[in-house]
DNA-binding transcriptional regulator, MarR family
Amino acid sequence: MSTKQKPEDRALHLEQFLPYRLNVVGFFASRALGRVYGTRFGIGIPEWRVIAQLGEFGQLTSRDIGELSQMHKTKVSRAVSELDKRGLVTRAENRADRREAFVALTAAGQRLYAQIVPLALAFEERWIEGIAPEELRVFERVLAVLTERGRHLAGAYQTEEA
Amino acid sequence: MSTKQKPEDRALHLEQFLPYRLNVVGFFASRALGRVYGTRFGIGIPEWRVIAQLGEFGQLTSRDIGELSQMHKTKVSRAVSELDKRGLVTRAENRADRREAFVALTAAGQRLYAQIVPLALAFEERWIEGIAPEELRVFERVLAVLTERGRHLAGAYQTEEA
DNA sequence: CCCAGTTAGTTACAAGCGCAACTAATGTCA
DNA sequence: TGACATTAGTTGCGCTTGTAACTAACTGGG
């Protein structure tokens, strides 16, 4: 006879419960970054993500931005509108498909991007400082697996339950 | 002369930017769990956290709950009120300090807790399934370091900038 | 004993969010 | 070609959230 413990008999300790821990660390990340961008540049996380993607890829539709940065289309829409209002991005209608528009950084947007990138990298550097490189590699590999699995467990935006 | 790259010269790739990745995985965790609790029990993440802490520790003040589960005191206040309204917790004034009250699960609350725990553990199990135990241990150790550092980088709630 | 400072918890308010519904444009298939 | 489905993007709405302000109770130094 097996004496192995059935899952339903194990106790739950929230502070060791992985989903909880991931949510907490993600919250800290968001909050800390929000302070950096917010206090120095007056932008929020969604705006920052839009700028980051445009800085990296040059020109994208809102749909692409949402997919690349895991944001709901309404959040993208509002972030792009805000950045447009501030003169940091432009929207150019795609003549081949007039439903969509190509969003790109203006000169001012590019200057802002150039300012933020070093801060973001320094922030990341300070955060992972002192962690052994090989441990960090393991961490990132596991994180990638958990993220991909989490995506399925969570279900994508506006997707019907299959 | 050194040829090492200065940080400000490195490029930023959002999808590899750690704060972003942590935020995304935390979002998936929260969303997936929210579905489990929400659809089956009609409660949200804050309510779940309160129940989890009470199930583990038996009796706590709202302040303790907030500290243990990393929630703002207003969020705790609202979650406890909601659970009280549903008859899942009771509030008993502490006679030695009448500002605070001891919150505890009712019998119904304990039954709910007993129902949720196996689901939560099974969810976690499904999420980490197939990941090598030693990699998981490394992951969790690094996660603990990042969380602690993130707590400081983010700053606690309603704390003045020191 | 008293008064200034601190703490537990609640609430008004505004900002941010996702869902659902909508408009406008494109794709599809007979 | 024409009717129906799909897609990009916006907006109205209700819900959740954190900040700030508040009440009530406790603490401690004089």
